[in-house]
Amino acid sequence: MRNFMRFIIVLIISFFEILSSATAQQSGKAVKLEVDLREAARRIYHAKMEFPVKPGPFTLVYPKWIPGEHAPNGPIVDVTGVKFFANGKEVSWRRNTVDLYAFECEVPAGAETLEATLDYLLPTESGTAGVPSASAQVAVLPWNLVLLYPKDTKSDDVKFSAKLRIPVGWKFATALPVAKESSEGIEFETVSLTTLVDSPVLTGAHMKTYDLSPGQKPAHRLNTAADSAAMAEATPEEITVWRQLVAETGSLFGARHYRHYDFLLALTDHLQPNGLEHHESSDNRVPERTLHDPDIMETQMDLLSHEFFHSWNGKYRRPAGLATPNYQEPMRGELLWVYEGLTQYYGVILAARSGGWKPEGLREYLASTAAYLNDRPGRAWRDLEDAAISAQTLYGGRTAGNSWRRSVDYYDESTLIWLEVDTLIREKTGGKKSLDDFCRAFHGGEGNEPKLIPYTLDDVAAALNGVVANDWKKFLLERVRSHGPGAPLGGLEKSGWRVTFSSTMNEHQKAVEAAEHAVDAEYALGFFVHYPGSDNADEFAEVVWGSPAAKAGLTAGMKLVAVNGRKWTPDILREAIRGAKGGKEPIELLVENDDFYQTAKIDYHEGERYPHLEAIAGKADVLGEIAKAKAPPVR
Ligand SMILES: [Zn+2]
């Protein structure tokens, strides 16, 4: 998954017990699953299943811990219409009173199959019920939304034969192998539950497919589905970038752990921007105009590279605590700073290597990342490792309070940590080796099909030691358990750059502002505020803990009304900040707090402040070297 939550308000059973557990399921036979998406535009998915069973007690469970989401967020609240049938009669079920994801029943004598139905009601907004997966014109089907499976089984062992119906005239794309297609629907090959859940379907009225590795094996495809035909079209420049991305990963890892790879890209404003990694595909969701709006593209440039990198780091290699045998077993997120952190670093670096981000673009992105993390008061009480351990509570958390609570900081902060590992390896080996050598050793190996090899921190440290000797475990733990006060900026310095502030706006921040419709005055007054007329208009998305605005009594959720007595606009706010520079008079903000108005006088006189990277005199541009393409240019 990729972190989208910084600026916007968006929202044990042992292994052996599982193996030996007796259930009424007959082993060997596949579960038949029929899913009907023809009412996707009405936000309803229908499903029917047929389980091979034996008479006796039988429990079916709904997936709770979803791979890549690192949280027990299977949206059980919207699972409706659950009914069981056997021998032509309805079979009553009772929900487990502690585990609300478990449906218990008694299979009657003589029954060899149990039929189950369910409807999944899709939310139209993100919230505690989950996230939207369909618009009027585009639908994504993560199979875990519409299925049950026998309790205490391993997802590798349960087989599913799935059939799918989509709206008339719609197309579809998925990594799941198709057995047969007819007017009755699409029949997929029988696969394990692991593979099924790992292979979502993208379908829509307006779809395009692009070959990202023409004439080569394995195949790589970009499949787009948009709310309009024109917005499903990628530009030739974008296709060149993503072809180069495929080439760069080949050069980086030397092996691929999939039979083919499908980027699924949903372009609609009605799904929350997100990305979810899979072994042979990725489920990417972005605003409708992304492929044709440079500002939005700038903020999404590392999305496909991030999710693609996960095929190696996250799917092929996964922390042992996240490599669970099924979707009910709790996950442990303590190594998410490797799973998500290393992926965030390479997602950004690969976006640069493949030409998506120019060197200046990469520097502006890193300046913005380093600056906000360096000024993260929450570090005083919460270290990065605790954020990783707490992952299941932090995803979906609100932006308000993030500077003191901390958020899923193991994405961005780990970018800085892995940059330090990369630059330290380069320093210790005189530029002969780099973190790329670690990736090749750790994520390479034999390829061509999906496989999972779990790892521990000791395995990571050992592989790094294989590249160059160092006490890597101590090095990494010191960083993830640090209380600062500042961010780990050692790598940035070794890469030849340091953070500096000026009144010129940061180009990456500018693109984020335009895409998110929120003024970023984080390093001056200390807040983000949504544009007038936008979603959450005039609202402070976050007021940084300890900032001048916080000291003047402001907090997230309040609304900005006027600046120095005049109805506010982004320009009027910026002019007031510039006007107060070097002066004595405070900036006066009229704000609304529930039904009450209050005036906040902010004593701030340093003008506009935006972060940039400045070259350190006498140091080589190692960052530039890291970001250079490593594979020959594609045509
Ligand atoms: Zn991720």
Description of the molecule:
- The relative contact order is 0.11.
- Residues about 5-20 have low confidence and may be disordered.
- The strands form eight sheets. Strands 1, 2, 4, 5, 8, 11, 13, 14 and 15 form a nine-stranded mixed β-sheet that branches. A five-stranded mixed β-sheet has the order 17-18-19-21-20, with helices on one face.
- The protein is built from 20 helices and 32 strands.
- It starts with 14 loop residues before the first helix and ends in an 8-residue tail after the last helix.
- With about 625 residues, the protein is an alpha+beta fold.
- Helix 5 crosses helix 7 (about 340-355).
- The chain binds zinc ion.
- Zinc ion binds near residues 2, 277, 340 and 343.
Which structural traits does this protein have?
635 residues; alpha+beta; nine-stranded mixed sheet; five-stranded mixed sheet; 20 helices; 32 strands; 27% helix; binds zinc ion
Number of strands: 32
Q: Low-confidence spans: pLDDT under 50, at least 5 residues? A: 7-22
Gross morphology is globular
| Category from helices, strands and their pairing | alpha+beta
Bound molecules: zinc ion
Largest sheet composition: 9 strands, mixed
Rg over CA atoms: 26 Å
Question: β content, as a range?
Answer: 25-35%
